[in-house]
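step 3/5: co-fold with zinc ion
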Amino acid sequence: MPLEKQQAIVLSNSDYGESDRIVSLFTLEHGRLKGFARGARNSRKRFGPALETFARIDAQLNHKDGLSSVRSADVITLYAGIRGNLCAIAHALYACELVEHFTPEDHPLPRLYRLLIAYLEWLDANPASDSDRRMFEINLLNILGYRPSLENCSRCGGVFDDRGALLQQNGELACRFCAKTGRTIPSAALQGLGFCLSTGRFGQVVFEKEELRIAGHLLDESLAVHSARKLKSLEFLQQTCGEEGS
Ligand SMILES: [Zn+2]
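step 4/5: write tokens
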């Protein structure tokens, strides 16, 4: 089987046996893959630090269903700026776990790949912020087709007026004619999230404290609807960086 060179981000890794490693890679061409790296813990020559979580690498691999074989890997960048700051590390690990948790195996998602790279590059050079984290989440949900509509009622299709929308238990948004209960998501928060989708650049959207709290609640609900469990890295993020808006 021919070796392929694949651009990838390391989403997670775990030791296997005496000297091997199993890695989860998010590749540009094949999406998420599980890879077996034989001898990775002993061979500095073939792997060096390339299999660290959130490293950006060129991997040489035999692509197979289930478990690919990673023969060697070269570091493109380890994002040293992120690794020097615990809160930035927490955000990078969270972004990687989101991608690992929400993406199907062996399904190319080049837009999500570029989003993850853009976020890691931003974190590498700028302080981590909750606005940027929320920008990553809404764009991830959008690319995967899980985003609630921010402009139109999920039931009647009517455009939300300036009172905003009501958040429903299924993570969708409804207008005041269709729903009687639900937390209000004001139009400013909806517009801020809409801007996150249209700008495509981190650092462009800075939510006001109250908008951030409400937009965060909407995103937490939307992610929870599509997720069976709380992500481990989220707890670490909350412990490391403090609760949102505080
Ligand atoms: Zn409606």
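step 5/5: annotate
The domain at 4-78 is CATH 2.40.50.140 (OB fold (Dihydrolipoamide Acetyltransferase, E2P)).
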